[in-house]
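Annex B. Sample input.
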Amino acid sequence: STDNSLDKLSGEPITGDIEGFNIDDIAPDVSIMGKYMLTNNWAVRANIGLMLRKDIAHAYVKDDEAFLANPLSEEKLVDTRNTNRNGLSAMLGAEYHKGNRRVQGIFGAGVIVGFNQSKTNYKYANALTDINQRPSSAWETFNDNGYRTLQSKTASNVFFGLCGSVGVEWFVAPKVALGAEVDLALYYVMGGQEYIVAEGFNTAKNSVEVRNDINAPGSDAFRFGTDNLGGSLYLSFYF
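Annex B, continued. Sample output.
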């Protein structure tokens, strides 16, 4: 009766719960790692993660105008919700290889930076008017003042800090290695403010108005622990 799931095997720029943040929105889940060997033991390395997401949801909603004319009407309209998220995570550092056999120890250090931002737009089929001040919609986006959300936008969440890593690479072929590592990261997250554009009927002005308000001031976080920036399990090809 309990839903069980397997933890992700890929590396994650930020893991765990951070109060005031949606973890999936902060940074990409997976990054691409590259390294350049300066000597047989020393290398510079970089991890880049990119997140570009665009989700468009459509849902049926009752046609208020048709229902007003005929209470038995089953006419439907379509509401649309358009969500955009984009972000980037990066780590730049150096690593040291210990050993020259098939199994080698890897020790690294570097700096980490990243950002993300999100925006959601709503398009409603039923118009908000003086007669229909709370029209039917597929999503419950009305606040306590009777205003419904047209756009929700979060300013950039930014994180930066330092990380160290320790791991091992097992060369299954002369230039192909399976790797596993754990990062120890120290970083700070600056959360962006959330803005809401909403429309509602202003009884004092006897008209529909659009408001642009700050919905949330933005949260900050400080983290220290074994959060992984990419490559907790990885496959490397050397050229």
